[in-house]
Design a protein that fits this description.
The complex is a heterodimer of chains A (225) and B (203).
Chain A: E1 8-9, H1 16-28, H2 47-61, E2 69-70, H3 75-80, E3 88-89, E4 97-99, E5 107-108, H4 110-127, E6 131-133, E7 155-158, H5 180-191, E8 196-200, E9 219-223
Parallel strand pairs in A: 4-6
Antiparallel strand pairs in A: 1-2, 3-5, 7-9, 8-9
Helix pairs in contact in A: 4-5
Chain B: E1 2-3, E2 13-16, E3 41-51, H1 54-58, E4 70-73, E5 90-99, E6 109-120, E7 128-129, E8 133-139, E9 148-157, H2 158-166, E10 170-183, E11 188-198
Parallel strand pairs in B: 1-4
Antiparallel strand pairs in B: 2-11, 3-4, 3-5, 5-9, 6-7, 6-8, 6-10, 10-11
The chains are: A alpha+beta (225), B mainly beta (203).
């Protein structure tokens, strides 16, 4: 695992050998930091290198106030040494579910895609309805405006079920359209997956969900990996 | 035109009629008797945008979305359902002025002001109001009795602002528009209306 001996970036000591290490690592994460062209691995810290560090801290590390510097024992170097995020696209043309977000917004970890597809398949087998799947993550992960999360391919938005089976949104306050019974079944199936982390949803009459602002018309399903 | 049919939430519509300016700015009494009063006009504010129709949403292909051609009145901006929760990139601010008097209104001046409450993406409660800016000031043409005049006072590119703020993990949590109708000759505020647009961030 490549390491550095002193700080690199804005205000750093910027030893050439350390700078090269950081530039090489940043180039492995190009997609995540939104760069098309790789950095020149010349051991010199300039605006492009600092900008790439800042973007990596913002988009991948999740730092609110990025300092543009990589320290030998800091979090940035640890995340730089992790494998770049590799996500899998939710397959289209499946009758167990329908998408209400575009294909480029439905990338998840292998586990997430497996888990949500299995849940959809079971729902189809047990209730004969397809579930609606919305945003997951962008192809290369990272920030996904206007979401706070959905950055790592582990968050999936799912519509609650409707009584009429239409491929439309429904809120829990709409007694005429909201199918609480089938939605409860969906939650039970989702919870049976051992990698499920949490479900945010405002129908607290359903066991196993956590109420959160804005979750009247979708279940926010998060997996642990 | 249709409304998106949602409760206003913490949006507040206040139409308050102000009676405070019976004197000129220089302190002198107006030369002529006041012929208009606060009951002469109603002022309202709408946030309008283009969104998909019910029919379009019922047969929606997210990979080939149809054009947004249905005008809606936006009561809040929220992105929880990418198709059915209106969250347009751009919206218009339309101020309506209704002549509730029996005489023709002429020479009224409409001035609109706007401001944003901006704060951290993760902490709505820390948002603070930015300085209010004048977005428009126009003299209205004659308005006949019972006529309702709609004036498009501004177009807001909310998507551009969001992207700019999002880069620094910040968010525009609330937008506020204030419209003031003056009778310039009498140096008098006839009506004022304030409307807010809550802006939600996705989870």
């Amino acid at each position: 695992m490549p390491q550095i001996t002193s700080s690199v970036g804005r205000g750093g000591r910027n030893r050439a050998a350390d700078v090269v290490v950081v530039q090489e690592l940043l180039n492995r994460h190009l997609a995540s930091i939104g760069r098309i062209h790789p950095l020149v691995e010349d051991g010199i810290v300039g605006p492009l290198t600092i900008n790439a560090i800042v973007r990596f801290q913002q988009r991948v590390v999740g730092t609110h106030n990025p300092d543009g510097r990589v320290d030998p024992s800091g979090r940035t170097i640890k995340v730089l040494n992790q494998e770049p995020i590799r996500l899998t696209e939710l397959p289209s043309g499946n009758t167990d579910y329908y998408s209400y977000a575009s294909a480029d917004e439905q990338w998840g970890t292998r586990n997430t895609i497996r888990a949500i597809r299995e849940a959809a398949k079971r729902m189809m087998q047990e209730t004969s309805v397809s579930i609606g799947i919305g945003h997951i993550s962008l192809e290369n992960g990272g920030r996904f405006p206007p979401h706070k999360s959905h950055r790592w391919g582990v968050d999936v938005d799912v519509r609650p079920l409707r009584l009429d089976g239409a491929r439309r949104a429904v809120t829990i306050n709409n007694d005429n359209d909201y199918d609480q019974t089938r939605t409860r079944k969906l939650v039970r199936i989702l919870r049976e997956d051992p990698t499920l982390d949490l479900i945010l949803f405002n129908d607290t009459n359903i066991q196993g969900v956590i109420s959160a602002t804005g979750h009247d018309n979708h279940l926010h399903v998060r997996y642990s990996k | 035109m249709k409304s998106c049919g949602r409760a206003l939430g913490n949006s507040v519509v206040v139409i308050c009629l102000i009676f405070c300016c019976s004197c000129r700015e220089d302190g002198n009494e107006p030369a002529d008797s006041i012929t208009l009063d606060s009951s002469s006009v109603d002022v309202g504010i709408e946030f309008q945008a283009e969104w998909w129709s019910e029919e379009q949403m019922a047969n929606f292909d997210p990979n080939d979305p149809p054009p947004k051609e249905t005008t809606i009145i936006l009561e809040r901006w929220e992105p929880f359902d990418p198709v059915e929760d209106p969250h347009p990139d751009i919206f218009d601010i339309v101020v309506t002025v209704r002549n509730a008097s029996a005489r023709r209104l002429e020479g009224l001046r409409l001035t609109a002001y706007s401001r944003w409450s901006i704060g951290p993406l993760e902490d709505k409660k820390s948002a603070v109001w930015q300085e209010e800016e004048m977005t428009s000031s126009v003299t209205l043409g004659p308005i006949d009795p019972s006529e309702k005049r709609a004036v498009n006072v501004a177009q807001i590119n909310i998507a551009a602002l969001q992207l700019e703020l999002y880069e620094n993990y910040r968010w525009p949590w609330l937008f506020e528009m204030r419209a003031v109708l003056y009778e310039p000759d009498a140096n008098k505020v006839l009506a004022e209306s304030v409307k807010q647009l809550p802006v939600r961030a996705g989870d």
